[in-house]
Design a protein that fits this description.
Strand order of the largest sheet: 8-7-9-10-11-12-13
Distance between the termini: 51 Å
CATH superfamily of the largest domain: Response regulator
Oligomer: single chain
Radius of gyration: 21 Å
Helix content: 25-40%
CATH class of the largest domain: Alpha Beta
Order of helices and strands: EEHEHEHEEHEHEHEHEHEHEHHE
Strand content: 15-25%
Length: about 325
């Protein structure tokens, strides 16, 4: 029988003051904000399944104190550690390389874009490691279909990416396969630093019918991504993005992950481990649905009419 539910929210170093053992320790890549919906949904799903657990929440601060958090978490002797975000998962991975296997508590990660590329797990079908979890990714094919539903005549899609970034490499590998299935041609413009974005964009001028913005750290940063959107507006090109934040700034559409669903899927993995399954045997879970967003002002400027059916199904439509 599970212990009575006691949820204690505490941040960073303050958690060191609490000495009790917990069922689930949550390590976030930063406090609140981007991770709030997922963490709240985890608690809700555990309660819905009749699983009452004691939890403590830790968060990275971005300073030297972060390096000691894995040790402090393990001192609480949790049954499972939940890593929310890539930085949290990689910090635990680095710490586990220094401790004996017997001390490596199962880790469930969520909101990690490329867990295989980051070395957290070995395979999609079976983790093969003390880590199991949920990928923060929408298959390129699902994104391309959003673009084709709005602009069926598009054939050439331009994409900027850093060829040295492992996440971008994996996204592009999938995208090439998916584009071929949908009779699309990818026009790739590699760049390694954000100052190169202007030249990369100019290399696509006149060669593409749309631009696709991926979660590449170089291209998706605020300034270069705005340069991409400005270039697209000047050249009357629709932009397909991965987050609604870019749609608010002028991209035509986005197909992204439901962040709350990331919590639902992570809770499923936590429950399986608490019920006795080994993380090594668990498969990687991926989003079951994509949220869509549209910008009607951008659509009008491009002379594009988005069907009412798509607008009605959208998570949000910006005017």
């Amino acid at each position: 029988m599970w212990r009575a539910s006691v949820v204690l929210g505490c941040w960073g170093v303050a958690c060191a003051l609490l000495a009790q053992e917990v069922d689930v320790a949550i390590l976030q890549s930063r406090e609140g904000g981007f991770y709030t919906d997922a963490v709240q949904r985890i608690h809700q799903e555990l309660e819905k399944q009749g699983v009452s657990v004691q939890t403590l929440i830790f968060a990275l601060k971005g300073d030297r104190s972060d390096q000691d958090l894995p040790r402090r978490i393990l001192e609480r002797k949790p049954s499972v550690i939940l890593a929310v975000g890539t930085d949290a998962a990689l910090l635990l991975k680095a710490h586990y390389a220094k401790v004996p296997p017997a001390q490596q508590v199962p880790v469930v990660f969520t909101m990690v874009v490329d867990p295989i590329g980051q070395g957290l797990i070995q395979d999609v079908e079976r983790s093969g490691a003390r880590f199991a979890g949920v990928a923060l990714a929408v298959r390129p094919q699902r994104q391309f279909r959003v673009l084709q539903d709005i602009t069926p005549d598009i054939k050439r899609v331009g994409v900027l990416y850093n060829p040295k970034d492992p996440v971008s490499q994996r996204i592009l590998a999938q995208a090439r396969e998916d584009a071929a299935r949908l009779n699309l041609t990818l026009q790739e413009a590699p760049l390694e630093q954000s100052p190169q974005i202007e030249n990369a964009l100019q290399s696509l001028a006149g060669k593409v019918d749309a631009l696709w913005l991926i979660p590449d750290p170089v291209c998706a940063a605020p300034e270069p991504s705005q340069q991409l959107i400005d270039f697209a507006q000047k050249n009357r090109l629709p932009v397909l993005a991965f987050s609604d934040s870019f749609v608010r700034r002028g991209a035509l559409a986005a197909a992204g992950v439901d962040l709350a669903e990331q919590g639902t899927l992570a809770a499923e993995q936590v429950i399986r481990i608490l019920n006795g399954e080994k993380p090594e045997d668990l498969p990687l879970l991926t989003p079951r649905r994509a949220l869509t967003y549209y910008n009607l002002k951008t659509a009008r400027a491009l002379g594009i009419t988005i069907p009412d059916m798509l607008l009605n199904l959208a998570e949000k439509v910006y005017e």
